[in-house]
Amino acid sequence: MSFQDEQLAKEKVFRDPIHGQIIVDNQILLDLINTPEFQRLRRIKQLGTSSLTFHGAEHSRFGHCLGVYEITRRMCNRFQRNYPTRKPGDGLWDDRERPVALCAALLHDLGHGPYSHTFEHIFHTDHEAITREIITSSSTNVNQILSRVSPTFPEEVASVIDHTYHNPQVVQMISSQVDADRMDYLQRDSYYTGTNYGKFDLDRVLLMMRPIKSGIAFDISGMHAVEDYIISRLQMYLQIYFHPVSRSMEVILDHLLKRAKYIYQHLSEFEPEFTPYMLMPFFNNRFTLDDYLALDDGVLTTYFNHWTHSRDEILNDLARRFLNRRPLKSALYDEKSKPLLPKLRKLIQTAGFNSDYYTAVNDSFKLPYDTYNPQNSNPQTQIELIQPNGNLIELSQVSTLVASVSGKEAGDQRFFFPKEMLNEHQDIEIFEPIYEEFQSYIQNNHIINPKEHKQ
After folding, report:
1. Percentage of the residues of the chain whose pLDDT score is greater than 70
2. DSSP conformational letter for 196
3. Alpha-carbon distance 347 to 422, whole Å?
4. Would you give the DSSP letter of residue 49?
5. Using one digit for the tens of pLDDT, what is the confidence trace for 87-111?
6. pLDDT tens for residues 139-185?
7. Secondary structure of the chain as H, E, C letters
8. What are the tens digits of pLDDT across the range 355-382?
9. Which of the chain's termini has less CB crowding within 10 Å, N or C?
10. Cα–Cα dist 191/185, whole Å
11. What whole-number distance in Å separates Cα of residue 66 and Cα of residue 14?
12. Rounded to two decimals, what is the model's pTM?
C-alpha cells in the first residue's frame, strides 16, 4: 500500500499556539503520532533546564516535532503549487518526495533523551543515532508503520535525518541554515519563554523559498526576511539558550548524574540500597533501545527526589539544589584570566566544597551564519539567493548585515562556583578570609587578577 492510499477521509487538526492549525491528512502520519515512541516526547521538555529560568518554557519536544512537520508540509504545498517538476533532473519539486519529507520532519527528534544534552554528555549517547535506530529497528511501532509504505521506506526516512538521502531539497528542508527545525524552535521557544527575540516573518521566508538542483534557495527579494531570521536566531542563542542561570542548572544536573554514576560504580558498599534500576543500564554502559525509551524527564525527577534522602552529602545536596532551583553563580573569564581558575578552585575546596562537583567551566559559542567551507569537519550549506537573471549569489555577498556577523562566533566563557562564596557574612568565621580572598578575584561578574586592579 502506498502513502497516498492512506489519505484520511477527513483531515485531523491539532490546535497550536505557533502555527494555529497543524493539519494531518494521512493515516500513516496519524499512526506515527500515536505510537508510544512519539507520545514519549510529550514527557520531554524542549528546553530542558531553561524552564528554571523562563518559567513558561514548559513546552515539549512533541509540540516542536508537530511544528516542524507543519512547516515542512507548507513547504511541500508551495513547491508543488509553484515549482512542480516538468522533466527529470530539472531541479524542481517532485511531489513523490512528500512522504519521506513529512515523516522525517515529524520524527527528526524522536531519539532525544531526558534533559537530552546533559544526559548525552554523561552517558555518551547520541540522539541522532538513536533516532535512526528507532526508525530502522523492526522492533519499534514506528518502524512497523513506516514499513507499510514500503520495506525500504524506514531507511529512506532515516537517511534524511543523517543527511545521506539522495535528494538535497528534502535534506535541507529538515537540516540546513534555514530549515523547518530551526524556524519552528525559534518561534516556539520565543513564545514560551515570553520573549520576542526569536520572532521573524515565517510566512515571508516560506514564500521566498524555491527548490533548485542543489537544494533550496531564496528569491533575492526576500533577503531582508532571511536577514531578520538570522539575527533572531543569534539573539535567541545569546539571550535564551546561553542564559547563565540555565547553564548553571545544567552544570548542577551534569554533576548530579556524574555523582550518582560514581556512587553506583564505586560506593555501593557505602550505600547498598542505591539501586536506581532504570538508570543502571546506563551506569553499566550496557543499555538497550527499550531501556532508553523508558526514560523521560519525570523518571529522572523521581530519582532526584529519592536522592535528596541519600546518605551521600554531595548527591543529597546537588539533588536539592536542582529540584529547589538553587543555581551556582558564574563569572566570565578569558584567556588572560584563565590561569587564575586553579587558584579559585583551591579556595572553593578549602571552604569545604568538593571542587569536582561544585565548580565548572562552560564555553557557549555559536556562529550566527556560517559561509560554506569544505575544509570544515561539518561544512554548512550556505544560503543562496536567486537573482532576477536566475543566477545564484551567496547571502553574505549582498547583505552587509549578514556579512558583519558571518563566521564570527558569539558567546562567552564562564566559571561556575557556589553562591555561598560571594556571601558577605558566614556562620563559620574561620572561612571568612577565604571568602574575602575569593571575592577579590571577582569584579563586575568578571574574573580578574586583584594584583593588577589595586587602586
Report:
1. 95
2. S
3. 12
4. G
5. 988 999 999 999 999 999 999 999 9
6. 999 999 999 999 999 999 999 999 999 999 999 999 999 999 999 99
7. CCCHHHEEEEEEEEEECCCEEEEEEEHHHHHHHCCHHHHHHHHCECCHHHHHCCCCCCCEHHHHHHHHHHHHHHHHHHHHHHCECCCCCCCCECHHHHHHHHHHHHHCCCCCCCCHHHHHHHHCCCHHHHHHHHHHCCCCHHHHHHCCCCCCHHHHHHHHHCCCCCCHHHHHHHCCCCCHHHHHHHHHHHHHHCCCCCCCCHHHHHHHEEEECCEEEEEHHHHHHHHHHHHHHHHHHHHHHCCHHHHHHHHHHHHHHHHHHHHHHHCCCCCCCCCCCCCHHHHCCCCCHHHHHCCCHHHHHHHHHHHCCCCCHHHHHHHHHHHCCCCCEEEECCCCCHHHHHHHHHHHHHCCCCHHHHCEEEEEEECCECCCCCCCCCCCCCCEEECCCCCEEEHHHHCHHHHHHECCCEEEEEEEECHHHHCCCCCCHHHHHHHHHHHCCEECCEECCHHHCCC
8. 999 999 988 877 777 654 444 545 567 8
9. C
10. 10
11. 9
12. 0.94
Helices (H) and strands (E) in the chain, counts: 22, 11
Q: Are 29 and 100 in contact (CB under 8 A)?
A: no
Beta carbons of 97 and 170 less than 8 angstroms apart:
yes
For residue 410, give the C-alpha cell.
558569539
Instruction: Report DSSP state, residue 380.
Output: P
CA 361/CA 333 separation, integer angstroms: 9
C-alpha–C-alpha distance, residues 93 and 214, integer Å: 12
66 CB burial (10 A radius; 0-12, 13-18, 19+): buried
Cell numbers at residue 381, please?
Answer: 550549506
Amino acid letter at 97? Answer: E
pLDDT in tens, 272-313: 778 899 999 999 999 999 999 999 999 999 999 999 999 999
Q: What is the DSSP string of 178-190?
A: S-HHHHHHHHHHH
- Site of grid cell 536506581: 276
